[in-house]
Amino acid sequence: MRELVSIVTPAYNAHRFIGECIESVIAQSYQNWELIIVDDSSTDDTVDIIQQYVNRDYRIILFSNETNLGVSSSRNIAIKEAKGNYIAFLDSDDIWLENKLEMQIRLMESQNIPITYSDYDTIDEDGYVTGHFKSPAKLSYQDMLKTSSMGTLTTIYSIKYFGKVYLKEIGHEDYLLKLELLKKIDYAIGINQPLAQYRIVKDSLSRNKLKSALWQWKIYRDVEKISLLKSIKYFISYAYNGLRKY
Predict the structure, then answer these.
(1) How many C-beta neighbours within 10 Å does residue 63 have?
(2) In a domain, 210, yes or no
(3) If you compute the radius of gyration of the chain from its CA atoms, what whole number of angstroms results?
(4) How many CA atoms lie within 13 A of 230 on its CB side?
(5) How far apart are CA 231 and CA 146, in angstroms?
(6) DSSP label of 173
(7) 14-39: per-residue pLDDT in tens?
(8) Quick check: is 80 in a domain?
(9) What is the mean predicted confidence (pLDDT) over 81-104?
(10) What's the farthest any 2 CA atoms get from each other in the chain?
């Protein structure tokens, strides 16, 4: 039997896009998955929309936070509840292409690779493609320090290899998670074709560049304990690559 994939989806006031997100999982050619959605105390009809899908498909599981805990805590709740052998990430406003899981799980199993990722397209609020992010064929810990080249919505890691790895609450938690995984292997492998669509909305956190830069510096110095000189070197590389990313 094919390995179970646990898909981690945090949701907060996601009524505009959550249906499209869920439909992209249902449409996967690889069907042995569980979709664990953690609603972070939404104030709109997000839960009602999700519940309609829960009632139709036993593979879709909903947890609801009584108070707003934030995206990282919500992801961690889903990881804790996961029963699969793989963890995959999909935010409530993003979309997977139908062969996404099929291609990545096949690669992981055929070549015994514990982490994979892929290219992805960016889309606007109306679903129109606005750009393309091309990922490297291989990615090491050192590479990741220079630039964030692994999209979270395309990342899959093996629980059999790493165990359950959780996000830390410091900012840039998903980036830090990927650093933690990459420390334990020589490199991850990417698929050089878009398998997902990353939606950029007007109030997207990724657009807060100053806060993002401060988080990045904190990771270098306070978390990874990198020397001042090397931190400056990595930070310059990270900033440069961020400007030309798309």
Answers:
(1) 14
(2) no
(3) 17
(4) 9
(5) 10
(6) H
(7) 999 999 999 999 999 999 999 999 99
(8) yes
(9) 98
(10) 55
